[in-house]
Amino acid sequence: MGSLADTSVPHPFDPLSIEEIQTAVSVVKKAHGDVRFNVVSLLEPRKAEMQAWLEKPDTTPPPTRFANIVVIAPGGKVYDGLVDIKGGKIVEWEHMEGMQPIITMEELQVVEHKIRTDPRVIEQCVISGISESDMDKVYCDPWTIGYDERHGSLVRLQQALMYYRPHIDDCQYQYPLDFCPIYDAGKGEIIDIDIPKIRRPLRLEEKINYTAAAVEKAGGYRTDLKPINITQPEGVSFKLTGREIEWQNWKFHIGFNYREGIVMNNITFNDKGTVRPIFYRLSLAEMVVPYGNPEHPHQRKHAFDLGEYGAGYMTNSLSLGCDCKGSIHYIDAHFPTRSGAINTIKNAICIHEEDDGILFKHTDFRDESTIVTRARKLIIQQVFTAANYEYAVQWVFHQDGTIQPDIRLTGILQTYSILEGEDTHGWGTQVYPGVNAHNHQHLFSLRIDANVDGPKNTVFMADAVPSDAPVGSPENYYGNAFYAKRTKLATTGESKTDYNGATSRTWDICNTNKLNPYSKKPVSYKLVSREVPGLLPKEGSLVWKRAGFARHAVHVTKYKDDQLFPAGQHVPQTSGEPSRGLPEWMGDGTESIDNEDIVLWHTFGVTHIPAPEDFPVMPAEPITLLLRPRNFFTSNPVMDVPPSYASTPSQVLAGGKGVIDATDKFSKLAFSNGANGKSCCA
Amino acid sequence: MGSLADTSVPHPFDPLSIEEIQTAVSVVKKAHGDVRFNVVSLLEPRKAEMQAWLEKPDTTPPPTRFANIVVIAPGGKVYDGLVDIKGGKIVEWEHMEGMQPIITMEELQVVEHKIRTDPRVIEQCVISGISESDMDKVYCDPWTIGYDERHGSLVRLQQALMYYRPHIDDCQYQYPLDFCPIYDAGKGEIIDIDIPKIRRPLRLEEKINYTAAAVEKAGGYRTDLKPINITQPEGVSFKLTGREIEWQNWKFHIGFNYREGIVMNNITFNDKGTVRPIFYRLSLAEMVVPYGNPEHPHQRKHAFDLGEYGAGYMTNSLSLGCDCKGSIHYIDAHFPTRSGAINTIKNAICIHEEDDGILFKHTDFRDESTIVTRARKLIIQQVFTAANYEYAVQWVFHQDGTIQPDIRLTGILQTYSILEGEDTHGWGTQVYPGVNAHNHQHLFSLRIDANVDGPKNTVFMADAVPSDAPVGSPENYYGNAFYAKRTKLATTGESKTDYNGATSRTWDICNTNKLNPYSKKPVSYKLVSREVPGLLPKEGSLVWKRAGFARHAVHVTKYKDDQLFPAGQHVPQTSGEPSRGLPEWMGDGTESIDNEDIVLWHTFGVTHIPAPEDFPVMPAEPITLLLRPRNFFTSNPVMDVPPSYASTPSQVLAGGKGVIDATDKFSKLAFSNGANGKSCCA
């Protein structure tokens, strides 16, 4: 297995090709002249039309390909448009008054050069203790301003988080500066500088670095790691047709866009010959990283990494043997540059399999007859760099029908300066002399466009609770009764629910129209998520207003086309008044989500109280959750995975005759050639 | 690296050798004649004596080797004893009135033969619909009775959970019978049968099996999985000296006993030349599996798998390429048989390394200079079979100082019969026609004998909470302030704490005598555990009384020798009045645990509401938690792990000169020989 079909006609879910982007750009340029391209991206097909096509792809015309366009015209005017690619025409064009679209990598690159020559910035650098001749050693991460009530949203602004980097190879985040220039992208100049009341001059403490030179100086790399080689001499077990992947009964389309990065559409599972839909679309749709230091202007540090910068735009070009090991398939990503040229990110997505330990095992204690079957997992991965941080996002597919989003946080802490002996007041940690890493959260919004055995689904909240009947009562004499209390979330208002660790709360996405024939419970996928901190910025706070999606662990909406991004379509410089995106879509809370085409929005993540271990580069911290089939199959769906070893009682009695021994012959004893091992289990 | 030193003198933590067991047995036999051996196991050295030896092993005499002995004498009398092995003498011998020691595998094997010939059992089988001539097809899992108030603890009893197995190779748990014989181990006979009010005759529904024959009949094994080979051609990166392992700055002793299975002692981390103690001892010390069906006699189903059966006694003999892949080292376990002979479990423990994805990564968005370093993990594993269930227990050591207990639950659900159309009342799920799998929990007790930079430690509870100051107040104007609220657990009473998912609660094991020089916070290990259901059997219930350890997520005690097993030394047939073990050790709650030698007991696990997917054999369900160094190191401790790829800005400027490219050359593109790949990141 394993081939790449040549598909000249794009699948309706395919991202825009280079040619399609070029067409859209040229159509827009022709009509509107010299604009800067912010977004040229597939408008995903309307669901009704797409479902019709998916049902009969051979006889239904494919949905028309449209490009979503966002441009910034001279004077900073923002336009949203829609281009019919085949038709070569603009079908929508709207001036977005007071909206600021996503910040592109090119915009991130610009500001650093501006600050180095700005007299007021130079003045502040000198006050901090940097010589005017050292301005080439001053750097900044030029975030969007987020929101600042003094500046509003009519002007496109970036805040420059400032650092001093004595040598070009030094860690960007060791020498933070205490002031914050504000850059006007329209004017192309610094318009203001936020200067804190308490000044914190540059502290030139001893350098700490993770570069090879620094490690060599500190004693060199460790030499006691022996290689581990992972190979698939017979090839991989997955098959790609265009961007549709098939693996172990799974089939789905792998998309990618500037904003969410990887998007998976039309996820189905072949259940003994019946192709059963599970999710129409699955992605990380947004995230917010609020920082917990109340001192002005740190409240502006609450990056919406997807909505403000884009997990696609920031994605890394991955490499063989570095980001994954084994047999890897890569997919590139194509985006427009600001001028309308093509920026290709090679190897934006990597796809590979991994051995995953024991899939199932059982031994009969009577005779030691045993079955042990190893698991395999499929990983669709991207890594994106959000200035200081790295997010390695893995979408893990398991053979048993489980989907596991699995994120590793690494990269570098966002840092601020601290005086010798200064109290952090608990809002941060001095992770190194002079380096204050503020408390922060990483809150992700997982968007689950449910399609569990069909589009009409219902979400139930499930809590494991004791029986109400007291100990000693006839109904619960010994007090051991407990059960899963299920609460239907019938309206958008009811769906706003929080995590409860005490009841091991889960949420079941059910198709109540189809009961499991044995359990008589609705077929379902269960959201099992345990890293679910609440949004710590308070109700009514700036972050609370802007990141409405993060107020609850779960929201459910009735599906509507274009409701994709839960902090709003254009996130930079939203005030949160009103809260854009999900809070709007929740409406007055009365809309029915009972047996409807629904979308579940799940907020999960971590609260990070930094420690010196995280500096100057952070060992990866994992976050994960599971989407598990429950009452979906009629039995264990992986019994037909070939076992490594299987013996039955009758085979044991027969002295081993008929036993399956498919033990991997590449595994070896660590220290000898057989003295300590045995063939298997017998 | 990688050698096995020949060590003829046992390390004081080593389990008893075959010779030592034989010596102890012969000493006991000589003194007490024909007894049945229940336990012959190392009495671990007294801590004070052991610490003295660990400090100066060359000049301090090693602690005396003692064997803990438990025997059952004729008449069912239970004796606990202590044998001085070198001295060849019994130094303690005590009759344990009203105590029942652990059930051994040999005891589990006996009962099935008894039930098949017992007239009353045969009568019930016939009532269930089984022909008298088919009694060889009747099986039972003969659990300890747990506790039954009608029978007390003076007589050694087992409850026979009954099944019909039409063919010897059929799944043990598909055809449950509705009655429950009670076996008196002293008399060697069935003394009673619990017969439910509602009878549920055998339902001979269509067979469901996971055997090769059954899979072949259903269409055969899938053929689309290509092999993944994992090899370490240069050997492994760990080194063993006796049972002491060294790997990536870690060093510890790997013990094993009948009860807990794997025990790790004297866990230290070499921090740039300073060997720093972390845990004196780490193990799973107990577990309880309460079932949630209140119907009599299901309240008796709440197995203490460790205290009643033993994770050592039940451990599997592991095999190359089945239970792990790669280069594996195995360690055997030796136990006494009831008669005093030796039962060796080959390959009871397996040790191996695995690649673990990205350890850390950072890219500078300015120039795409990148460092990416891959992680390695060390896994110490055992798998044990508790009648129907399998537990794969992995102790995972990470390079960054994290220890991750990682458990996979697999095997087969414990099942009971259900009538056609019968209501489960929510206490269970019909996972297959006629098969009711009752709700249950798996609650583990992780025993952490803390030694974080020395024996005097203090536990703090940490909750991530918003500032108290309201939005708009000067202290929290924008409402974004949040911090980690730390609560000292100063006494045993204060230490009884529960999980709080809303605050992402963690517990910090601190050495308050030693502050991190940068953060000024005490050096610590943080318990990050998210699978922490409460004990669902109610306060005052039988399980609540017997499994006192499971009432809270955390208890902390002051260390005392021999306080190892939190449900008590002898668990079978305890009434819970008083609650043995941990509740006793907590005392009146006033004992100081502030800056003392302490033990933290952590209850974690899952609540399992079964589904048809779990039957007839369960795809592995994972549970995990982390013990993470926080404020322990002064910086990221893995910067000296060789990167796969590292380029600095100056190297990028110099066209790549000096870049480290140690990319694994065994990784390949999935579908071609280079067209789609690139060397790395450049």
TrEMBL record, chains A, B:
Q: Which residues form the Copper amine oxidase catalytic domain?
A: 228-639
List keywords of the entry alphabetically.
Copper, Disulfide bond, Manganese, Metal-binding, Oxidoreductase, TPQ
First-level EC class: oxidoreductase
Specify the species: Coniochaeta ligniaria NRRL 30616
**UniProt domain Copper amine oxidase N2-terminal: residue ranges:** 11-95
Superkingdom classification of source: Eukaryota
Write the signal peptide boundaries. none
- A UniProt-annotated Pfam family: Cu_amine_oxid
Q: Known InterPro entries for this protein? A: Cu_Am_Ox_Cu-bd, Cu_Am_ox_TPQ-bd, Cu_amine_oxidase, Cu_amine_oxidase_C, Cu_amine_oxidase_C_sf, Cu_amine_oxidase_N-reg, Cu_amine_oxidase_N2, Cu_amine_oxidase_N3
**What would you give as a GO molecular function for this chain, any one?**
copper ion binding
What protein is this chain from? Amine oxidase
Q: How does it assemble?
A: Homodimer.
Q: Which GO terms describe its biological process?
A: amine metabolic process
- State which Enzyme Commission number(s) the record gives: 1.4.3.-
| Domain Copper amine oxidase N3-terminal span(s) in chain numbering | 101-202
Tell me its family.
Answer: Belongs to the copper/topaquinone oxidase family.
PTM-bearing positions, type 2',4',5'-topaquinone: 389
Q: How is this chain modified after translation?
A: Topaquinone (TPQ) is generated by copper-dependent autoxidation of a specific tyrosyl residue.
Q: Can you state which reaction this protein catalyses?
A: a primary methyl amine + O2 + H2O = an aldehyde + H2O2 + NH4(+)
Q: How is the cofactor bound?
A: Contains 1 topaquinone per subunit.
